[in-house]
Design goal:
Oligomer: homodimer
Strand content of chain A: 25-35%
Largest interface: A-B, 38 and 38 residues
CATH architecture of one domain in chain A: 3-Layer(aba) Sandwich
Chain lengths: 404, 404
Amino acid sequence: MARIVQKFGGTSVADITRIKSVARRVKREVDAGNQVAVVVSAMSGVTNQLVAWTNDLAEIPDAREYDVVVASGEQVTAGLTALALQEIGVPARSFLGWQVPIETDGSHGKARIGGIPTESLRGCMDAGVVAVVAGFQGVGPGDRVTTLGRGGSDTSAVALAAALQAERCDIFTDVDGVYTTDPRIVAKARKLDKITYEEMLEMASLGAKVLQTRSVELAMNHRVRVQVLSSFTDAPGTLVVDEDEIVEQQVVSGIAYSRDEAKVTLVKVADRPGVAAAIFGPLSAGAINVDMIVQNISEDGTTDLTFTVAKADLARTVKVLEEQRGTLVYQALKPDSNVVKISVIGVGMRSHTGVAQLMFKTLADKGINIQVISTSEIKVSVLIAEEYTELALRALHTAYGLDV
Amino acid sequence: MARIVQKFGGTSVADITRIKSVARRVKREVDAGNQVAVVVSAMSGVTNQLVAWTNDLAEIPDAREYDVVVASGEQVTAGLTALALQEIGVPARSFLGWQVPIETDGSHGKARIGGIPTESLRGCMDAGVVAVVAGFQGVGPGDRVTTLGRGGSDTSAVALAAALQAERCDIFTDVDGVYTTDPRIVAKARKLDKITYEEMLEMASLGAKVLQTRSVELAMNHRVRVQVLSSFTDAPGTLVVDEDEIVEQQVVSGIAYSRDEAKVTLVKVADRPGVAAAIFGPLSAGAINVDMIVQNISEDGTTDLTFTVAKADLARTVKVLEEQRGTLVYQALKPDSNVVKISVIGVGMRSHTGVAQLMFKTLADKGINIQVISTSEIKVSVLIAEEYTELALRALHTAYGLDV
């Protein structure tokens, strides 16, 4: 008998019909002789309504009360899912964050899980009862309700799987797995049977919206075998696993892209010691994350400096830098939000050379200019003009031999 | 400085605009130098939606999961109301049933409050923070979420007022007080400034839907001064108080009516020892409450026996009695749901005679036939044909000198 965690997202529990279908899927796992803990999100749309109400009341709602309001969404789904299971003969009971308890810190709205004592859940599951846990929520200091932030139900599920030492954590969603790239753009994209934690982490943080980054980190740290699969089909999904579980590793596993980036260029900045601190200090103080940075070779004591920030932070970035104009000497400040970041990802890069070179050559062959480059051990990212997104993705997908 | 509990029902918190208006009303009490605990219901309509979902899943939903689902409604209002208060500069925090804790027994769906430790609430209020408590909910054995049943938020409020030894418990609703009778029927009905617990209890159980019966019992037992008033006007409401607080007591304080009754007559029942047990035993076993009972003088060894049950139980009552036909000998069984129970209520009856006589005479003068009579120390109830409801109410209202 194995212990399995199954997580169902908002679209999978959007209405009573789908909740019934979720119950049948859980039943199959129970019938196969497994102990099952289910983690559910709020019915899709519900969280948005709850958030809208808090925003109608306050521009910046008190995070503790915000959490009380939005956590109710998962509470409803947990109760309804337990009812749906009971109705088809599967003993089940719901657990709210404070009942498990899923202990978190006091960072309301984006709480981090500290620990999950599993006595109550184990007792329930050992008695043959499916534990239906409200995702996204926990209990913080002073017995206050906390939430883990958007997409937090993935994190709940993985944390629970780690605490329960579950054999597998199945994340049911509205896509049927992790693809080599976005299949809506590249028709030849291929579903991956397996992907390593490291790759999945890069994919998640570089724009593939299948899994929340934090949940992948958690899975990697606790070696939780995560499976991403669709709640609407019976096809097997993608397993996120340890590198040594993948026998024939491709050099490149996937190609991600993100349109959420914007570029800022400071033209002819006085190139003297402390200039980088003068630029990035104020941005950091303003809680603006800088991603890629490139600095040209200095000429005549000046240099051009380019970096990227989240598109949502662009206006604020420009404002902060203009306020520094007294201490920071530059000729011009050029913001540009018509950019896309394309990344090729693969743990095979560690042992193979020429991966970056193939990327540069492929893009050059299509006449695409690379504006910024950044690399890590298992990925190469470039910033290009947004209009080339589709062209670049297709060309790279073919060049790295990923086409079906 | 006084401690006040204010309770707002579903229509008073129906949307964000009304929740803001509730916050302003609470603020006035705070500005007057009082410590305030607020009890809120679910936004009107929300509970019905939640109940409907549980019914879509199961004919008889597991009461424990039902409670988890429906308790979410008050949770949302509690959080939103705390936000609304904070937004107008009133420090506030929400308390869910398990956070107070409002300890109940394990009768899910209709739990009874056992105790309310007030350390956390007092700590909050002593620090100048308004405690916004989710009504209708508590926490039962095994840390399970419980609910108190429909209208339970009144009970939450009164129980909280008792535990906090509050000076007053204000129940805000969509009517502006307790009337001598239903003002929709009798234009000359008058709002009462004060009413005794005993009278209010009779009014509530006899059909006046202003306060839940259980909350009045609780208020009476703990001598909580309850005020019923409208959340939509600034008019003073009706105070429910001890008898000795009312100086000039009317003989009759109010006239209630209930259309929820149905009459059953067993014609020519064999009149022998044990016949009542043979009739009412099976009904009691079927959880059918019998209200009024009248038995005619026996003739020829048979008698006619008439009693009333809730209209909703009528079909089941007939079924149960027909199943007894073997052991129970009677000529005919006549169900009648076209009846109304009219009750005149007043603690003054204890010291005044002729109250019942005036009722019988008044109805007789209008040609209204009385089918069943029942009396208690402070009320006289009669069952009449439903079509006479308005006529009887108006005539009695005038006869007892209640007209404005």
